[in-house]
Amino acid sequence: MKLDVIKLDGEKAGTLDLDEALFGLEPRADILHRVVRWQRNKAQAGTHKVKTRSEVSYSTKKIYRQKGTGGARHGSRKAPIFRKGGIYKGPTPRSHGHELTKKFRKLGLKHALSAKAGAGNLVILDDAKLAGAKTAVLAKAVKEQGWKRVLIIDGADIDANLKAAAANLTGVDILPTMGANVYDILKRDTLVLTKSAVEALEARLK
Fold it and tell me: Has residue 133 got a pLDDT over 80?
């Protein structure tokens, strides 16, 4: 698969051969769904907590005598049937994460890349470097290219000027190659990869 390479100002900078095993697959929704679900579950905090009978604050004295009241027998106001009593089988802190093999996660990333390439929403940049940390320069480039919700993936290191320029821009996100993931790729309308990012992804996903 061949794709045109452009510079940040929109000028052409040649073409690049993309690996069909990464960018030419027929995207499968079931694979993408499983990987996204794994990502979101792993990110879920799981810090929800209620107080059980042993944790609520009440006196431990028997609330009234055992017999002769005409009511049910109770020994503690902490019982779940009472207002402000302990909660029975309520949520406790836990991890929502589940296992997903590394091989399957790699496959999901390949399908995500292929989905963007197949839909025509993949752009290859010669490099993602700015002469200065100017938000206006990057905003102009993004507007001229027609990018609304864009994810830019650079090589191992992100250009400091580009990172600073993008900090104040809504709808522009930047990740290093190792941060590339299925959820962020699918969430954006346009995926922009630098040539160094393509090389790193091909090496990572072999």
Answer: no
